[in-house]
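User: I'm designing a mutation panel for RidA family protein and want to avoid disrupting the core. Could you give me a predicted structure to guide residue selection? Please restate the sequence first so the numbering is unambiguous.

Assistant: Good idea. Sequence first, for numbering, then the predicted structure tokens:
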Amino acid sequence: MSETNSPDIVPGTGYSHVISVDVPGRLVVISGQIALDAGGNLVGAGDLRAQTRQVFTNLEAALTAAGARWEHVVRLGYFMRDAGQVEVMRAARKEILPEGVSPAASLIEVSGLIRDDLLLEVEALAVVPLDR
């Protein structure tokens, strides 16, 4: 996997504009993760920072279950109730993501998620090399 960012596009903040993957590899598709713990309890009611940490904890658990790591992630899709709070999300994400992990990404502001008390949902795509 390699990053290819054009000098003709403003640099991304915590993401890459282009990720290239030479296959063969195993594609791992992770459904949107929300701020529920393993017991189904909401983590961080009204607190985007806490919800972001739980979402990324869930993503990491899903990656691990699939035999993948953060460095295999090629794309993240963000769905936020209030995109104006993106810096709060980025700060919390930075606490969890290893240095240098900056997959391609899209952020979409939405009017609602599956539950009214959720502020963020994140889905992921990863490519795990077959030689592992």
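For picking mutation sites, this is relevant: The chain has one domain: 2-129. The CA atoms of residues 73 and 124 lie 7 Å apart.
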